[in-house]
Design brief:
Pfam families: Csp
Number of domains: 1
Order of helices and strands: HHHHH
Helix content: over 70%
CATH class: Mainly Alpha
Strand content: under 5%
Protein name: Four-helix bundle copper-binding protein
CATH topology: Substrate Binding Domain Of Dnak, Chain:A, Domain 2
Largest sheet: none
Structural class: mainly alpha
InterPro entries: Csp_YhjQ (IPR005560), YHJQ-like (IPR044543)
Oligomer: single chain
Distance between the termini: 25 Å
Number of strands: 0
Shape: elongated
Length: about 130
């Protein structure tokens, strides 16, 4: 991805880029895409009613990951308290979605893949929060 490159060019960054922030942004966008695809795959399953909670958590996680990734990409000005709260919400959504997908992982490969993406994103959220201070 070009996240590091584009952020480094921002006048506010002056070439300095937090590796934890870059990883968080990349994982958040990847997780949003994976959760969206997983929700769609869940909708195509024969026993879709059994996947209702998984679909809901996938869609919630996709939305918060996309929003958090966008907010993390912004370098002009500062809104650290809101960014921190958003990354915390992203981590919580990833953990909830990942836990739910894990319960379906043996039966549905898309849920296994999604659970792994959610774990990576939650870990990236934790690292970004530690980096923010």
């Amino acid at each position: 991805m070009q996240t590091r490159e584009i952020i480094a060019t921002h006048p506010s960054a002056q070439g300095s880029v937090s590796e934890a922030l870059v990883r968080f942004i990349d994982e958040a966008f990847a997780c949003a895409q994976t959760c969206t695809a997983c929700a769609d795959a869940c909708l195509a399953e024969e026993k879709v009613a059994e996947m209702r909670r998984c679909i809901r958590l996938n869609l919630d996680c996709a939305d918060i990951c996309a929003a958090a990734g966008k907010m993390g990409s912004r370098r002009a000005g500062s809104n650290e308290p809101v960014l921190r709260a958003t990354i915390e919400a992203c981590a919580a959504a990833c953990r909830a979605c990942g836990d739910e997908c894990s319960t379906h992982a043996e039966m549905h490969e898309h849920c296994r893949i999604c659970a792994e993406a959610c774990k990576r994103c939650a870990d990236a959220c934790d690292a970004a929060l530690a980096d923010i201070g």
